[in-house]
Design a protein that fits this description.
The complex is a heterodimer of chains A (281) and B (235).
Chain A lengths: L1 H22 L1 H9 L9 E2 L38 E6 L16 H18 L3 E4 L9 H11 L3 E7 L6 E6 L20 H17 L4 E6 L11 E6 L2 E2 L5 E3 L4 H28 L2
Parallel strand pairs in A: 2-3, 2-4, 4-7, 5-6
Antiparallel strand pairs in A: 1-3, 5-7, 8-9
Helix pairs in contact in A: 3-6, 5-6
Chain B lengths: L3 H38 L10 E10 L4 E10 L4 H17 L14 E8 L20 H10 L4 E7 L1 H6 L4 H18 L3 E8 L17 E2 H5 L12
Parallel strand pairs in B: 4-5
Antiparallel strand pairs in B: 1-2, 3-4, 5-6
Helix pairs in contact in B: 2-5
The chains are: A alpha/beta (281), B alpha+beta (235).
């Protein structure tokens, strides 16, 4: 009799372990794809549900769209969740550049981040920011925040004194086929195609608003660990046809206009994404 | 009547004065000879003027985020490392000039040295990202190895701290500086396939807060700039 009890207990243990592994596949991959770092510092917009709400997630290492949800047997279906991560670059000891107005880049980035977050929140987006104050956030930590959130768009905000209009940058990593396990430093490779598509939507909206836009690809150390469509947006001075500066990148009115344009573009991105998901079998 | 002892003392003092004067004159002559000998030991051979050659510079433009090839005629040394340094010096002179399309202060003295080394063989070379370690290079050894190598090479560009400290900060401007240096080296030394950066001999995380200086840049990164979906619209 004791042997049969032991066997029963062992069977129950195995069954419980198998169920737990099946219920949370991310737990099996997260440690492989993420680097350890400090405690998180995130914030969400008011109308959105909390980030810690339990929901099915795509593993950080598996850059694929969420499978279509099975039809709900009864009751109203919740609105589709569309989460955007806004990353105000630099902060704390990392000052970024010095703008000609005397402002530090880290502060201008934060101001632009707050403006964009407010506008997106008003449009029903769920927003997570990597920082809400003047604090240092490690590049790996920023990527962890984005990957945990399973964001549909990740926007890294910069400001600069050189050039004109808005510079859009996508990682220069070569596109790679999505795999279950990806190296941390090149995790963005599986998302390059979507990132380029997001940059295209942002580019169209900015051009439509009469802004000078330059597109480029470059190594982006923080973004290259993100498993989401990710674009670095650098706000440069606004210039007229004579190349004279008409608005500095930390100008409140200029930032508000650019934030509104970016919000419009993300609205379009959300619409496109929902259409794509609707077409999925 | 002068006492005898005073005459003796006067004579001794006079002799001592004459002896000291003679010694001073002798020391002065020796110092002069030493000085003349020092001048003679300085190199008197005039530096050879290298013939002017055509060099292609990949000049960056902030307005449209592009690299445009420009051909310049300038004297170029035969040693590949010195040649690369001379070409980069001209490139950075263009950036330091007023009304430059990619304004960066510093000029020709911003590049301390350029070392050329054989590129590592094997699959690691084609890896998209590599984190480089601190490099210690003996200049003579590097030069010897570079001239004896016939395969692909990696160029290590040693920038000055002043150049990095005065470089404008920004994703676009820093990226263009790095890629124009890579493109210019490759245009004039086609065997160079990879470029790494040091600042006063030390590794540095970024140029001015944005462009990653810890990685090895493939010259194909710079070659791709011209093919970027660059679009400039003046409303």
């Amino acid at each position: 009799m004791p042997w049969s009890r032991c066997g029963l207990a062992a069977l129950l243990l195995i069954a419980g372990f198998a169920a737990a592994t099946e219920a949370d596949p991310k737990a099996a991959t997260a440690d492989v794809t993420r680097e350890p770092s400090a405690a998180p510092q995130t914030s969400t917009s008011a109308p959105s549900p909390p980030v810690s709400e339990p929901r099915p997630q795509v593993p950080a290492a598996q850059p694929a769209q969420s499978p279509p949800a099975p039809p709900a047997p009864q009751g109203p279906t919740p609105p589709p969740r569309f989460l955007v991560v806004i990353d105000a670059a630099h902060g704390g000891d990392d000052l970024g550049g010095h703008l000609s107005s005397g402002q530090l880049e880290k502060n201008a980035n934060l101001a632009l981040s707050v403006r964009l977050r407010s506008l997106l929140g008003a449009r029903g987006f769920q927003v997570i920011t990597t920082r809400e104050s003047d604090q240092s956030v490690d590049l790996n930590r920023r990527a962890e925040i984005a990957n945990h959130a399973d964001a549909r768009a990740c926007i890294s905000l910069h400001t600069a004194d050189t050039g004109s209009g808005v510079h859009l940058f996508v990682s220069s990593l070569a596109p790679a086929a999505p795999t279950r396990f990806v190296p941390w430093r090149t995790a963005q490779a599986g998302w390059i195609t979507r990132s380029l598509a997001l940059a295209g939507v942002l580019n169209s909206a900015l051009l439509h608003a009469g802004t000078i836009v330059t597109l480029g690809r470059t190594p982006l150390p923080g973004i290259e660990s993100m498993t989401c469509p990710a674009v670095a947006v650098e706000l440069a001075p606004e210039r007229d046809s004579d190349h004279k500066v008409t608005a500095e990148p930390d100008d409140a009115d200029y930032q508000a206009r650019m934030a509104a344009t970016l919000a419009t573009a993300l609205l379009e991105w959300r619409t496109d994404a929902s259409h794509m998901e609707g077409r999925q079998p | 009547m002068i006492p005898r002892y005073q005459i003796v003392i006067f004579s001794i003092l006079l002799l001592a004065s004459l002896a000291m004067g003679g010694m001073l004159w002798h020391l002065r002559q020796r110092a002069h000879e030493r000085l003349v000998a020092g001048v003679d030991s300085a190199p008197t051979k005039a530096p050879e003027v290298a013939p002017a050659e055509k060099a292609t510079l990949m000049v960056a433009n902030d307005d449209d985020n592009s690299l445009l090839p420009q051909v310049h005629s300038l004297p170029l040394p035969t040693d590949p490392g010195s040649r690369a340094r001379a070409v980069l010096g001209r490139l950075l002179e263009i950036y330091a000039a007023p009304n430059a399309t990619h304004p960066v202060p510093g000029g020709a003295t911003s590049v301390s040295q350029v070392f050329l080394l054989p590129a590592a063989a094997g699959p690691a070379r084609s890896a998209p990202h590599k984190i480089s370690a601190t490099i210690t290079v003996d200049e003579n050894e590097a030069s010897t190895r570079a001239t004896s190598s016939a395969g692909p090479e990696v160029a290590v560009v040693n920038l000055t701290t002043n150049f990095v400290a005065s470089h404008p900060s920004g994703l676009e401007t820093e990226t263009l500086t790095v890629l124009s240096i890579c493109g210019t080296i490759h245009a004039n030394l086609p065997r160079v396939t990879e470029v790494r950066f040091l600042v006063d001999g030390q590794q540095r995380p970024s140029l001015a807060g944005h462009a990653d200086l810890t990685r090895t840049y493939l010259v194909s990164d710079a070659a791709g700039v011209g093919a970027l979906p660059t679009e400039v619209v003046h409303p």
